[in-house]
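Hi C.,

You asked whether I'd gotten around to modeling the 191-residue construct. I have! Everything is below, sequence then structure, no commentary in between.
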Amino acid sequence: MSMSPIDYLLTRRSVKFVRAPGPSAEHLDLILRAAMTAPDHGRLQPWRFALIRGEAIGRLADLAIEASKVAGKPMPPEKEANTRRWLAEVPLLIALACRLDHSNTKIPEDERMLATGAAVTQMLDAAHMLGYGAYWSTGLGTYVDQVNEALGFDGLDYRYMGYLAIGTPIEAGEAPQRPDYRQFVTEWTGN
């Protein structure tokens, strides 16, 4: 029996520890198409993605760890080892960036970042609906210019936003207990 769409949304959770198989070509196409449905003021489509698979994931780990050291942001040895162990299992990383169109001064950068975040959320939801685990990480050199540039996201034209790791969950798990939304909502009446 299949879940309803709202149940998929309510049961989505971040799943860091994934392994092969990753999304098939057909499923990856659906995940990326889902990103295109994000709300986007001005239809700027600011999101940009770079697919990283197979041996390229290990090369990215090497690059990011070394670039972080050069930038004065080295990982502690235990974190480096844990990161390498984690990435050794991940079948697909998607690098995430927001393109800044400096010729468009009408729509602020914040709105472009929000649109890109919405596109990534659509990808997380689509991956979950297709049975994959996914995790948005801002580790692995996200804030190191050399890593961003190596992925094709020069800091003058892009805001780099991290990675999605997508694959088959290693452990089955339930969605975490969510807070009561009423803790975060007020009603404004204009009085």
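If it helps when you're writing up: Strands lie at 18-19, 47-53, 92-99, 133-137, 158-169.

Thanks,
B.
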